[in-house]
Amino acid sequence: MHRRRTATTATTARTTATATTARTTATTKSATTARTTTTTRTVAAAVGVLFAVPGLAGCGGDGLTPGTAAVLDGWRIPVDAVEARVAALRHAPGGVSADARWETEGPARRAVTELVLDAVVARAVADRGPAVADAEVAAARAEEERRLGGAGRLARALAERGVPAEAIDDRLGRELGIRRLAATAGADADTPAGDAAVRRILAATATALHLRVNPRYGTWDPDRAALAPAARSRPAG
């Protein structure tokens, strides 16, 4: 009787341990899936123009399809979105036509740079801590409007830097994210050391996202965290 009870107890213990292991594995898988989903949503939400690319692995060596300006981790920035941003800036006070730098660097290339950076910064922040909250962006916008003397002046100042009115919150959120990234590296974003640290983080994140850019807009320069003109790129307008 004693031996049978001992055997039964051992069997029960093994069964309980197996069930516990299964639950732990399921919980771990669930948590990993949730983290992956949250990060993907963060990248997608950073730029409202990102769309999933079905069957990305079969889309060619660079993952680019017709009508795509850039691809990040299976999400694409469509050419239509780039053209819409440039068009919005051409009609904004102090926009493209008023800024010689835009004519030199290329409005479309600048627009793609802005859209790519929004997604890369959002992913880098999500990988290292909490995302920038909407309330933080709203507070930053209110402060900038107060500092510059109103919403109109803020819109004009950012239009001169290639940011249309509808993308102001994205730009402010990105700047907050950059400061957060510098802080994770123990630096101040306004210092050379902080700037260098952020650029290293963004370069690594762009690589992790398998960033690919349509050659018509140039090539990604990880040191500058911006697009540089391709050697023989055709006009992107």
Number of helices: 8
Helix content: 55-70%
Strand content: 5-15%
How would you state the average pLDDT, rounded?
Answer: 76
User: What series of H and E elements makes up the topology?
Assistant: HEEEHHHHHHHEEE
User: What is the multimeric organization of the chains shown?
Assistant: single chain
Biggest sheet strand line-up = 1-3-2-4
Tally of extended strands?
6
N-to-C terminal Cα separation, in Å?
88 Å
**Estimated structural class:** alpha+beta
What Rg is obtained from the alpha carbons, in whole angstroms?
24 Å
Task: Please tell me what the overall shape is.
Answer: globular
Which spans of ≥5 residues are poorly predicted at pLDDT below 50? 1-22, 24-38, 54-61, 98-104, 233-237
Major sheet:
4 strands, antiparallel
Secondary structure topology:
Blueprint: H1 2-46, E1 51-52, E2 68-72, E3 75-78, H2 79-90, H3 100-105, H4 107-128, H5 134-148, H6 151-159, H7 168-184, H8 192-208, E4 212-213, E5 219-221, E6 226-228
Antiparallel strand pairs: 1-3, 2-3, 2-4, 5-6
Helix pairs in contact: 1-4, 2-4, 4-7, 4-8, 5-6, 5-7, 7-8
Describe the structure.
- This protein has 237 residues and is α+β, with helices and mostly antiparallel strands.
- Helices cover 60% and strands 8% of the residues.
- It has eight helices and six strands.
- The chain has helices at 2-46, 79-90, 100-105, 107-128, 134-148, 151-159, 168-184, 192-208, and strands at residues 51-52, 68-72, 75-78, 212-213, 219-221, 226-228.
- The strands form two sheets. A four-stranded antiparallel sheet has the order 1-3-2-4. A two-stranded antiparallel sheet has the order 5-6.
- α1 (2-46) packs antiparallel against α4, α2 (79-90) crosses α4 (107-128) and α5 packs across α7.
- The longest helix is centred in the first third of the chain and has 45 residues, at 2-46.
- The termini are far apart.
- Residues 1-22, 24-38, 54-61, 98-104 and 233-237 have low confidence and may be disordered.
